[in-house]
Design brief:
Elements lengths: L6 E12 L3 E4 H5 L6 H8 L3 E4 L6 H16 L8 E5 L10 H8 L6 E5 L5 H14 L5 E9 L9 H4 L4 E13 L7 E9 L7 E3 L12 E3 L1 H23 L8 E4 L4 H10 L11 H4 L6 H11 L8 E8 L3 E8 L1
Helix pairs in contact: 3-4, 7-8
Length: about 325
């Protein structure tokens, strides 16, 4: 019999998300900050965002999203041998918030650690999980993006505080032997980049070894917008080229939900039909590393993303960092 080539792929088995109970509308923000619903919507597309309750930690959001992802995948927590949590707002400086998630789920084996790449964090975490699964160091993983960005916002800075919200999203992924073609289920290609020359264009003005304080988020909005459209479009093209897939073959684009203008600009640059772009920024705001898995979960739950669909995920964040992943559902 002829030899059949086999390739270990990272298959997305399930997805879940969690949003805090408190929803903050633009109108409510306008009572506290010099802004208006119209100003926010015209510049960002955001109508509302969710804010964590007092005492509600990033780990609480992550645990809730992880449980839903496990349920959606039909997996028990003890099946998991790897947890990677993407966050820029951990519970503590150390240990990793992922270890708190691990303990809460009743897992006492395998590895659990955090990844910090700001809004690109989930893409970096998914890329890392894919690499560890493909080389055989892990078999089944939870990849989580969770943030409580409300804790690092300057609520007097209308240019930034209106943009962000809190939330968490998670996926369960597993290693499965596939045929090695683009018809395989799972991650077909992924790519991440960083460019530290732009460190000061989106950052927090505090830190353990610099100021000894938490600090607040600061952003050069125009510079971030300019680089976002260029970098995101480039890494999407790069990822598609690795897999040998054309943009018009992709069924769904699930982008980082930073700003509706960035989503529109990227879609136009790649000639993507807006109907194929999953948009949740109007409801969630920018939830940083939680943004992509939150949007993914919405599109899976409402039936848009179906088995065998090609899905392209992407994000860009402070650093600058950016990345993309192409997967067959």
């Amino acid at each position: 019999m002829p030899h059949r080539f086999k390739l270990r792929r990272t298959v997305i088995e399930g997805v879940g998300s969690y949003l805090p109970a408190r929803c903050v509308t633009n109108e409510e923000l306008a009572q506290k900050v010099d802004t208006s619903d119209l100003w926010i919507r015209e510049r960002t597309g955001i109508r509302q965002r969710y804010i964590a309750a007092d005492g509600e930690k990033t780990s609480d959001l992550a645990i809730a999203a992880a449980k839903k992802a496990l349920e959606n995948a039909g997996r028990c927590a003890t099946d998991i041998d790897l947890i990677i949590l993407a966050t820029s707002t951990p519970d503590n400086t150390f240990p990793a918030t992922a270890t708190r998630v691990q303990a809460a789920l009743g897992i006492n084996s395998g590895a659990a650690f955090d990844v910090q790449a700001v809004c690109s964090g989930f893409m970096f975490a998914l890329n890392t999980a894919d690499a560890l699964i493909r080389c055989g160091q892990a078999d089944k993983a939870l990849v989580i993006g969770a943030e409580t960005f409300s804790r690092i916002l300057d609520w007097e800075d209308r240019a930034t505080c209106v943009l962000f919200g809190d939330g968490a999203g998670a996926v369960v992924v597993s290693g499965q032997e596939q045929t090695g073609t683009n018809e395989d289920r799972g991650i077909l290609a992924c790519k991440v980049h960083s460019d530290g020359r732009h460190y000061d264009k989106l950052y927090v003005d505090g830190g353990v070894s610099s100021t000894g304080t938490i600090g607040h988020l600061r952003m050069q909005g125009r510079e971030v917008f300019k680089h976002a459209v260029i970098n995101i479009a480039a890494v999407m093209r790069e990822t598609l080229e690795i897999a040998g897939i054309a943009p018009d073959e992709v069924d769904w684009f699930v982008p980082h939900q930073a700003n509706k203008r960035i989503l529109d600009g990227t879609a136009k640059k790649l000639r993507i039909d807006p109907e194929r772009v999953v948009v949740t920024v109007d409801r969630h705001g920018n939830t940083s590393a939680a943004s992509v898995p939150l949007a993914l979960d919405c599109a899976v739950r409402d039936g848009r993303i179906k088995r065998n669909d090609l899905v392209l995920l992407e994000a860009m964040g402070g650093g600058f960092t950016w990345g993309a992943a192409l997967a067959r559902w």
